[in-house]
Amino acid sequence: MMATPKPGPVQINSRNPIPLSSSQETQVRELYYKRVRGYCADEIRDFASCALNRTISATWACRQQRLAMNNCMIAHASQQEQDAAREEWFATRDERRKEREAKEARKKEQEKFHRAWWGMPPLPEDEEPAASEAKR
């Protein structure tokens, strides 16, 4: 009998195989746009300073700055940048979770303080085990 080789881990061609929700994709897209704007900050600043206090005349008066800005953004708007933004989003996922948990904890503490301040009864989950045992 011949021994059959054990199958190895499945290789997935996609760099980030985990599908994201619509809101998560929006967050990745915002990171992507932020990265591209960061690369082209000088060109954007030049166009903005030229277009300042202009309306329709900005179209032809700032043509060179606009073309430079658009060319820069097009040059940096690539699939590699999208992948880098997605990887950055995944890398900061734990940090965002910790921030969200801290925000929830602050919210609960503020609610607890508010109820104590106004003499309102505590919420059932806020009651401590010692206090519930003392009522018995």
If you had to describe this structure to a student in words, what would you say it looks like?
The chain has 136 residues and is mainly alpha-helical. Helix content is 68%, strand content 0%. It has 7 helices and no strands. The chain has helices at residues 22-39, 41-51, 58-61, 63-76, 79-91, 93-117, 129-135. Helix 1 (22-39) packs across helix 5 and helix 2 packs antiparallel against helix 4 (63-76). The N and C termini lie far apart (72 Å). The model is unreliable at 9-14 (pLDDT under 50).
Structure characteristics:
136 residues; mainly alpha; 7 helices
How are the SSEs placed, and which strands pair?
Elements: H1 22-39, H2 41-51, H3 58-61, H4 63-76, H5 79-91, H6 93-117, H7 129-135
Helix pairs in contact: 1-5, 2-4
Question: What's this model, at a glance?
Answer:
This protein is an all-alpha fold. Helix content is about 70%, strand content about 0%.
Provide the gyration radius in Å: 27 Å
Distance between the termini: 72 Å
Mean pLDDT: 83
Main sheet characteristics: none
Structural class: mainly alpha
Strand percentage lies at under 5%
The number of helical runs is 7
In helices, the fraction of residues equals: 55-70%
Please trace the helix and strand order, writing H or E for each element: HHHHHHH
- By DSSP, the count of extended strands is 0
Poorly predicted parts:
9-14
Net shape: elongated
